[in-house]
Amino acid sequence: MKHHLTSRSFTSVMIMSALVGIVSFTRSEEDTKKPSPQAGQVRVAKLSYANGKTTVCFAEGFLTTVARQTSIKVQRSLLTVDLASEDLFSFPFVIFSGEGSFSLSDKEKKNFKDYVSRGGFVLASAGCSNAAWSQSFEAVLKELFPDAKLTKADTKHPMFHTIYDIDHLVTKKVTEDPALFVLQREGKVLLVYTPLGLNDTGNAGGGCCCCGGNELRDASLINANLLAYALTR
User: Fold this and answer.
1) Is 49 part of any domain?
2) Is residue 4 part of a domain?
């Protein structure tokens, strides 16, 4: 399946939005005095949570795609940030993924809710479509955002057309109608979630694979679109 680049121009709006995304969170005076090791560069992190649980197989190639296809200055490797740490709020975009059931500490729950409420963007993906992880994640959302509801994102939504035009989703295993789900507040997307996996494990290196699980195809293009969207929403 082929996807073509959109005709949108990212030259000025993407740079400004990326910089805004970096500094959009409320930070203490002490924090603002600390120089960034990658000044002016967008950093993306994967979350560490529930006593060290994290994704070990989430391909980071989409970062290079965004850097090459737009004017956003993106650090081309994923960092890791503890969900319970204040460092979380220095990342405009984080990946919440893994396999198996989990539960969050009170501090992790508070940080997660604050991060989303203050403008941070979360891409949540069940590694290899792991059902136990999805159940745990959906339980967290229900607890922290009881008045919000996950809704299926129509492929006409701008998130599918920032860098590449993606008109439909396909899974590696034909099982069900694949979809991305969004959590919104007042029309603004707070996070994107899929129980079918956007990890692109085949390109993650280190012998990563789904080991019989399922994933969405073209995950790298989808993830690149989502990052570009998150910085311009």
Assistant:
1) yes
2) no
- Which residue, chain included where needed, has tokens 């956003």? 72
Report d(CA 68, CA 17) in Å as an integer.
Answer: 17
For residue 233, what pLDDT band results from cuts at 50, 70 and 90? Answer: confident
**Tokens standing for residue 1:** 């399946």
Q: Domain count of the chain?
A: 1
Q: Which helix (H) or strand (E) segment is 67 a member of?
A: helix 61-69
Range of the domain at 197: 13-23+38-230
CB of 137 closer than 8 Å to CB of 126 = yes
Q: Regarding beta strands 93-98 and 79-82, do their DSSP bridges make them parallel or antiparallel, or are they unpaired?
A: unpaired
Residue 215 lies in a domain: yes
- Regarding pTM above 0.70, the answer is yes
Please give the span between the terminal C-alpha atoms of the chain, in angstroms, as a whole number.
Answer: 27
Return the closest-CA partner of residue 87 out of 37, 145, 142, 14.
37
Whats the size of the chain, residue-wise? 233
